[in-house]
UniProtKB/TrEMBL annotation:
It holds the Pfam family YycH. It comes from the Bacteria. Residues 3-423 form the Regulatory protein YycH domain. This is YycH family protein. It comes from Paenibacillus sabinae T27. InterPro entries: YycH, YycH/YycI_2. Gene3D superfamilies: YycH protein, domain 2.
Length: 430
């Protein structure tokens, strides 16, 4: 009997020793957590849901050319934007022919020919565009990034034309085989006949002839905590050290990675210079890696769109722009401001691995918002103001956006016009 008791006690001591060793190795603050893989980051469960990359890829606007120098614009989430885009996603485009952009008289096509122009801002890699459109690219076209797709019909032709613009600026790719008829194009264009008319001089930007109605909103807002971000970004949040900088910013580090928090602007910057490279990378692969990273380390607190994926020296910068609004009024970008960083997510990648991650700590409760309709000026009133602000430098683009304004514990989204100059500088007009 005594021998049996001794055996049980010995077994209990061995198990206790194993458990204690486990905690000493893996759980004490300061222990090296390198044995954990990147996929075992602790997810933050109350910041935002995960998102599929396909839902982040959509045109920032849709320009409808009616012929006779008449035009209109549809914005994301508006009725006809959704209808036309969903139909185009179901059509196939094949046999791409590489041509010079100067082979086409775009001013004539814009003013005379019915057509649909999809704008993708700074561009989208073809390898990603294939996820939302039925494309059959060759090896040359598949390596491009596209910033515009122009589908139109001409009086002298019996087939529709589909032209894809390279972000390089001098090259376009025309689909010799497009699953669209002239009648299809005309049917899509006809949706814009009763919509707000727009005018343009050069095709760079379009001015509505009537006031543009948007939904202004005020909603409760809050801040994600430092603890939430630590648990999402560090292998072992308990091992981080706290450092306060002279400028008031706070830094949390585990000696390898760092999380810097700017409390005044409610902005966080995460850096992991020791991240191991994943190998060969492309624009498309890096965007997919960036989406996965956000999915695992914070999620998406709203609707976002791929804004940019560009190279900078040996790094690749990927940005996602938040949009606000819904059917039927449309959704528009939330303006990122120097004094209030909100509505944008930035990531930096080296050889396919995320080494830096920036985003706002602020979130809003859209389901508790109070809304009202606000009219942005159009027509002659807008033209007059644009003429005044365009005296110093030519304008490149004009776009309705939401300006975020903090009012105590509430966030107000105010519709404004965003004016973009040729040199990239911007200003807002109410």
């Amino acid at each position: 009997m005594k021998e049996r008791i001794k055996s049980w006690v010995l077994a209990l001591l061995v198990v206790s020793s194993l458990v204690e060793s486990y905690y000493l190795i893996y759980r004490l603050p300061g222990s090296d957590s390198a044995v954990f893989s990147e996929n075992l980051y602790v997810k933050t469960d109350n910041m935002g849901p995960e998102e599929k990359v396909e839902n982040l890829l959509f045109p920032d606007k849709m320009i409808i050319h009616l012929g006779n120098n008449k035009h209109t614009l549809f914005y994301p989430s508006s009725t006809f934007y959704n209808l036309i885009l969903n139909r185009l996603k179901g059509r196939s485009f094949e046999s791409f022919q590489r041509r010079s952009v100067q082979d086409f008289d775009w001013a004539k096509i814009r003013s005379e020919n019915p057509g649909i122009e999809l704008s993708f801002g700074s561009g989208i890699p073809v390898a990603l565009l294939q996820r939302v459109m039925q494309l059959s690219p060759d090896s040359l076209f598949s390596g491009e990034s596209i910033d515009r797709i122009w589908i139109y019909s001409a009086k002298s032709d019996s087939k529709a034309h589909a032209v894809f613009f390279s972000t390089r600026g001098d090259i376009v790719y025309e689909a010799a085989k497009a699953d669209l008829t002239v009648q299809d194009v005309q049917q899509h264009v006809d949706f814009g006949k009763s919509w707000t008319p727009y005018t343009t001089l050069t095709g760079d930007y379009y001015i509505p002839e009537n006031n543009l109605s948007l939904v202004a909103s005020e909603m409760p807002s809050g801040l994600y905590t430092v603890e939430q971000m630590q648990s999402s970004l560090f292998f072992d949040a308990g091992s981080t050290r706290y450092i306060r900088e002279k400028d008031g910013s706070e830094i949390y580090t585990d000696s390898k990675r760092s999380l810097q928090v700017d409390q005044e602007r409610n902005w966080m910057s995460y850096s992991d210079p020791t991240a191991l490279p994943a190998g060969e990378s492309t624009d498309a692969k890096d965007v997919l890696e960036a989406v996965d990273f956000v999915n695992q380390h914070g999620g998406w607190n709203g609707t976002y769109r791929l804004e940019a994926a560009r190279e900078n020296d040996q790094d690749r910068l990927v940005s996602f722009q938040q949009y606000y609004g819904s059917y039927p009024y449309g959704s528009y970008p939330v303006l990122d401001q120097p004094q209030l960083h909100y509505g944008i997510i930035h990531l930096q990648l080296q050889q396919g691995t995320v080494t830096a991650y920036e985003r706002s700590l602020m979130y809003s409760k859209e389901d508790q918002s109070t809304k009202r309709i606000v009219d942005l000026p159009g027509g002659d009133a807008l033209r007059k103001r644009l003429a005044e602000v365009g005296k110093s430098s030519p304008l490149r683009d004009l776009y309705p956006v939401y300006m975020p304004v903090v009012k105590g514990d509430k966030l107000e989204l105010v519709p404004v016009w965003k004016v973009v100059y040729r040199d990239g500088s911007t200003l807002t007009l109410k």
